[in-house]
Amino acid sequence: MAQLPERMSTADLAQVVEGIRTTVRRHSTRFERAIPLIASENLLSPYAKELLVSDLHSRYAEGLPGERYYEGNEQVDEVENLCLDLARRLFRCSFADVRPTSGTVANLAVLKALAEPGDLVATSRLADGAHISSAGFGAFGLRGVKPLYYPWDPERMTLDVAKTREVLRAVRPKLCLFGLSLFLFPMPIDELRPTLEEIGAVGWYDGAHVLGLIAGGEFQDPLHEGAQVLSASTHKTLPGPQHGILLGELKSEETAKRLQAGAFPGVTSNHHLNAMAALAVSLAEHLAFGRDYARQVVRNAQALAQALHERGFDVLAPELGFTRSHTIAVRVGREGGGEDVALRLSRAGIITNKNLLPGDKSPKHPQGIRLGSPEVTRVGMREKEMVAIAELFDDLLHKGKDPAAVAEAAWALKRDFTTLQYCFGAGEAAYRYYDLVGRDPA
Question: Are 279 and 363 members of one domain?
Fold first, then answer.
């Protein structure tokens, strides 16, 4: 990275600004030409994007609608009340709070509300697919709670129900967290509901990855299977802004108040009003288009997994159909390991991420990669294109084809899929960031 000189004139700084804009434009072009397979990424609709650069970006509205600590929030209250109503409708639940600014902040709000330092909270290990917020160096450590790890079934990529019952009865944690960052199959909450009730534990579901699939009826329905609280980010299978949300089917008004206090003043101040408004648009769009979108997301993931399997890749859980979500896990030790393979794919125009798999010890040098179908589905790809993507993997990683040639083939496939689908304003450009201002800043 170039070093800035110690002294800079206004003209120098103007050049820096133009350089930043140019770099972002190059980034947008890169993704327009690439096959984006990050399971945790998606694309905003034009109407939601518009609100991110609205005047809401510049304003504050601490507190709840009608109970603000700043004046001038009448319109903010209208939008937030609509956002809350849309969330409750979409997820068929009685409680919602849209003030967390990310999924991890939503998790922190739950921990602030429902756990004290020293409490036991059941969760999964990182190598079994858990998110870093449930690790000692993440939100769990920040709140000072102690993780109790579920017994895991690596063949089925889910927890072992019988052994988990035994552990929960023996140790009796205060909270039981269900939810993963490598989320292939539904969690057995319904099967464990009697045990949670028996020990008096609160079921908590981190639905960040599968939020749009839940809303679209293509995964499980945790709030009606035994979880009282659902925390999530809002930009993965739900194609909204980078924000957070709390949802619940709560047993008491006191729990609702504790969660609201956990969100504010617990772990947020202002809650990024522009993103909240964009979330409201995204929730409305998901009510309109989410079922079709979620169905195709899952079909695409399963088609890609099958095509990779047929080409000799070690895709996890073949006996179970590989996945019931948007995510695929591939063990690539034979191809060089997760770190090397993800880098080689990136150079060939295919964007993935290295990922821990059961048995891995090093998060920097895992044996797996994680693939996801949300973004390629959002731009209109279907099962046929998933087979073509698997061919690109095979060409690069098994047949040794030149990365530049694979990148060209990736762009040849992608060039017909660069506009948004499943939203109001469908057909708008998906990647060119300057569309919001109506001109190329170059």
Answer: no
